Known about the structure:
With about 170 residues, the protein is an alpha+beta fold.
Amino acid sequence: xxAVLKLERAEVERICxxxxxxxxxxxxxxxGQTVVSGEAPAVASALERFRAGGARVVPxxxxxxxxxxxxxxxxxxxxxxxxxxxFRPLRCGLVCNVTAELLKSAEDAPxxxxxxxxxxxxWLESVRRLQALGARRYLExxxxxxxxxxxxxxxxxxxxxxxxxxxxxxxxx
Length: 173
């Protein structure tokens, strides 16, 4: 996997299509920032093409080619596990990263969760959908602030905070 910076999505898509082997868009993070995933030799070849097109590329240290067709076996295993799970009615709205749309029913969740294993994460579109739905405050829970940084590239002066420990949680509250 690798981040492709300073190259428009359409050009990233074109290069992926024209590169022999499997190389696919894995994340649509922000304007001018797309992540690709696939077979290591195909990704390496695409990176050279991206650079030739004026992009900056950042190889990512990951354990697998996430969010691409090579993850189909994992998606099938997840589907089997999800079939045994019970999904309760939604209590609040949820924008799905695979569609960038509001989840309409908990019954749709298993299929969307399976799809997200092999489909691109549509973060840019998801953030814009949240904004259109009236979201005004964004909290990132985790070990860092990557998504908060992306929010700052997508929205103008968002109220966005990363919650990484009790102190930052108390500050956010």
